[in-house]
Write a structure and sequence with these properties.
By secondary structure, the protein is of the alpha+beta class. Helix content is 48%, strand content 18%. It has 24 helices and 24 strands. Strands 1, 2, 3, 4, 5, 6, 7, 8, 9, 10, 11, 12 and 13 form a 13-stranded mixed sheet that branches. Strands 16-17-22-19-21-20 form a six-stranded mixed barrel. A four-stranded antiparallel sheet has the order 15-23-14-24. A hairpin with a 3-residue loop joins strand 9 and strand 10. The longest helix has 38 residues. It is elongated and about 105 Å long. The protein starts with a helix and ends with a helix.
């Protein structure tokens, strides 16, 4: 109570550091606890694939063929159950409709839909509130839906055995009987679903049967297995090569590559960041390490403040120590006293940190885009850990001043001969340098991340991404509407062009082929992503031709075996130039037959995936049928998107009254690929601000104490004619030198850390020297503002008051 300001700085600084640690610890706990509630979690595994092709880098994925799940269970007795899971990859949302006996048809667009086998619910734990998981999907055309979807469709009525109509680009358009309703578990899961459909009874079943026992191609399923309790997963993996040799060897040789299967424990799937695409986006271990480091360093800065201010004020309490020693106090009792004060401070900080954590958690959830819950009942172990951390913090932060103060010689103290030693002063300065070094590393990181995110938003993608309206075509009716929609929008003067495709840049595209040229074989084929488009799609997105021409309705033969490829495809396949590739054929083999496509055009390389990945070969094939496309894209004139949207919506409602009209913008869809990077940028920015505030609090306290210690010196200087600016410079210069030293030490560290982070991007903004200039200016400005107030206050004080006691 006697030193309210310094108590506030210590308690608030520690509580802010602890609150940051708590929030990040809750985040790390959330990210590392995916599927931990599964009853069979110890025996659940996802099967992964490594594609091996000579001359190319091995590709690691979790995509597998349809026959693999039943084939593994049949072949290996160690496997108790197996199940396939397929996300509805050709649609971002699926149209679900229900026609009650009386009233209007209800239509909803739902995401997170999957196709799966009946065994899925025997392996994975779901909380069924209607129906039974044992036989939920045993019959064809059955579905299990979430409680939220059931309430949307039926209100408070039971959903069991009701019939709904599901329109899916992936699985076709069918009626489904609801055989189960589950209540979503609040704990995080890698399979976050709104509804599951049986594989049997839809287009996907027909597709699987048509391909038979093809273990080589169509790798689009997720395969899960449940091992028997006594099974050894490592031993099982050693048997996979002979399995592949037995069932897929001949097909793989014809296709020119080989594959290996491996197992990932389901509990580790979310942290398997070496696999880019899964049922949910994996967590980046690098990002988790960064956040954990920020938490540790933020708390460390707060501890340094505590230690610095405690030692700085030691001379203020030196007389107290001297009197206590003269009156018989032992060194041990003084140590207990000062450690007790330190523990009291940290306990107060801990209580305040708990309050701040509860208060800030909704904001933290919004920034991190997670649903993290915090309760003293469920998180008692975590809270106990933080209580111990607070006590250890109090011990570490208070130990040095406790032992330092208790060792004072009472004679020297009471004679006024005690001064701060050079060692104590040096330690204090070293700690200031260290804590500002951490803050400057965070500032540089924030600037580099912000520049990279700006680069990702503004980089030339090789096509026009702005003013592009994307309208999903999710049903047979919607696909049929496209022809009329395009015809009427062509007459709109605010529309530049309208096109359609099965996929568009920035979204998942599973379609691919392996192409080779004359004189080569399938063993030399180059993996090429494929898209099927209408005649105006390339013009709508303004792809730049570098040789040949684009598709056109005037050339009816374009719908045959003709193809347009990008520059990367030309280089990879082995043509000397784009111009010389025109008119040549490229080939691929499929099920023992050879197919040849004539190259009629080459477009400039473009980013069909986000900038984490390099541009690879890509090809377009044209189809005239306007009922086979998944997306319509409208290129509106600048500033007229709202008018075009209104026009498109009116046309849509004229032809399709039962399906909701939805749209997105292509540039927004592309930016969704950077959601994890944006979250990291936001979190680093917020915690950088907190770290700077804590550092500045400490610097402000030290500046205040320094000014107090030099009050008489300042008074003498003013009496002898020193100006206010001279005194301000005198008081500020020492601290600014320390900040400058922090910049010099922190800059190479930050450069190294950020260079490592930028390796996650195939395309990036280089770290410019200007970043370090800006950071230096920011750091010095923060330091000057922090200590400037106290310096000016001390400089303008009346010297008569400070010298009166002399």
């Amino acid at each position: 109570m006697k030193s309210k300001f310094f108590s506030f700085v210590n308690i608030f600084g520690l509580s802010a550091g602890l609150a940051c640690c708590m929030l990040i610890a809750l985040y790390l706990k959330y990210e590392t606890s995916y599927d931990s509630y599964q009853k069979n979690i110890g025996n659940l595994y996802q099967v992964g694939t490594i594609f091996v092709k000579e001359g190319t880098k091995d590709s690691k994925t979790v995509n597998t063929p349809a026959p693999l799940a039943p084939g593994l269970k049949q072949e290996f007795p160690e496997i108790q159950e197996s199940a396939r899971l397929l996300n509805l990859f050709t649609e971002d949302k699926t149209l679900i409709q229900f026609k009650p006996l009386s009233g209007e048809k209800k239509s909803f667009l739902e995401d997170k839909g999957y196709l799966t086998d009946p065994s899925f619910f025997k392996m994975f734990t779901y909380n069924f509130i209607e129906g039974s998981p044992v036989n939920a999907l045993n019959r064809p055309n059955t579905t299990v839906i979430s409680e939220d979807l059931a309430k949307k469709l039926f209100g408070n009525e039971p959903a069991l055995n009701k019939v709904i109509h599901i329109n899916s680009n992936t699985n076709g358009e069918y009626d489904y009987i609801i055989t189960g309703v589950f209540r979503p578990i609040t704990a995080p899961s890698n399979i976050s679903a709104n509804f599951f459909m049986s594989i049997s009874g839809g287009d996907m079943e027909k597709y699987i049967k048509a391909r038979g026992a093809d273990f080589a191609s169509n790798n689009m399923f997720f395969t899960y297995i449940q091992l028997r309790p006594d099974a050894n997963p490592n031993q099982l993996e050693t048997k996979f090569p002979s399995f592949i040799h037995k069932y897929a060897d001949n097909d793989l040789k014809r296709m020119g590559f080989y594959k290996k299967q491996f197992l990932i424990p389901v509990k580790d799937v979310h942290l398997a960041d070496e696999i880019r695409s899964n049922t949910t986006a994996p967590a980046s271990k690098t990002y988790l390490y960064i956040l954990a480091s920020i938490a540790a360093f933020t708390l460390l800065i707060a501890c340094i403040n505590f230690m610095n201010l405690a030692t700085a004020r030691s001379s203020k309490r030196s007389s107290e120590v001297g009197i206590r020693k003269v009156l018989g106090a032992e060194k041990s009792s003084l140590i207990r006293q000062f450690l007790g004060e330190s523990f009291l401070m940290t306990l107060l900080a801990f209580v305040l940190a708990l309050f701040l954590t509860f208060l800030l958690l909704p904001l933290f959830n919004a920034v991190s885009e997670k649903q993290i819950n915090f309760s003293l009942t469920n998180d008692w172990a975590l809270m106990l850990g933080f209580l111990l951390l607070a006590l250890v913090t109090g011990l570490i932060a208070g130990s040095y001043p406790a032992f330092y103060l208790s060792s004072f010689n009472p004679v020297k103290v009471l004679k006024g001969k005690l001064t701060n030693s050079l060692a104590v002063t040096s330690i204090r300065k070293g700690l200031v340098v260290f804590q500002f070094m951490i803050s400057i590393v965070l500032i540089i990181s924030t600037v580099v991340i912000a520049r990279q995110m700006h680069y990702l938003r503004t980089a030339d993608l090789g096509f026009d991404k702005d003013q592009q309206i994307v309208i999903p075509l999710r049903s047979t009716t919607a696909k049929a509407v496209y022809a009329s929609l395009k015809a009427e929008l062509k007459n709109n003067t605010q529309v530049l062009s309208v096109g359609a495709s099965q996929y568009y840049p920035g979204i998942f595209n599973p379609a691919d082929n392996g192409f080779y040229k004359d004189g080569q074989t399938m063993n030399e084929a180059k993996h090429t992503r494929m898209n099927w488009v209408d005649p105006d799609f390339l013009k709508t997105l303004n792809f730049k031709p570098v040789a040949g021409r684009l598709f056109s309705e005037q050339f009816t033969a374009d719908t045959g075996l003709r193809i347009i490829v990008n520059e990367s495809a030309i280089k990879a396949i082995g043509f000397p130039s784009a111009q010389k590739a025109i008119g040549n054929k490229i080939y691929f083999d499929w099920q023992g037959k050879k197919y040849g496509w004539e190259i009629i055009g080459v477009v400039k390389d473009f980013h069909f995936e986000d900038l984490h990945l390099p541009v690879t070969p890509y090809g377009f094939n044209m189809i005239l049928s306007k009922t086979n496309f998944n997306y319509a894209i409208i290129h509106a004139k600048a500033g007229n998107a709202s008018q075009v949207l209104q026009s498109a919506q009116n046309i849509w409602k004229k032809y399709d009254t039962n399906e909701p009209f939805e749209y997105t913008f292509l540039d927004d869809d592309f930016q969704k690929n950077y959601s994890a990077d944006n979250r990291l940028a936001s979190l680093v920015s917020y915690f950088t601000v907190i770290a700077i505030i804590i550092s500045c609090l400490g610097l402000f306290g030290l500046a205040t104490f320094s000014a107090e210690q030099r009050t008489k010196e300042i008074g003498v200087r003013k009496v002898l004619g020193a100006s206010v600016s001279t005194i301000v410079s005198l008081l500020s210069l020492d601290f600014l030198k320390l900040i400058m030293l922090s910049v010099i030490i922190a800059s190479p560290i930050a450069w190294y850390v950020m260079n490592k982070w930028l390796t996650n991007f195939a395309y990036k903004e280089p770290i410019s020297w200007t970043v370090f200039v800006y950071t230096t200016i920011i750091a010095l400005a923060i330091g000057l503002l922090t200590i400037g107030y106290q310096s000016i206050k001390a400089a303008i004080a009346n010297p008569v008051k400070s010298l009166r006691s002399e």
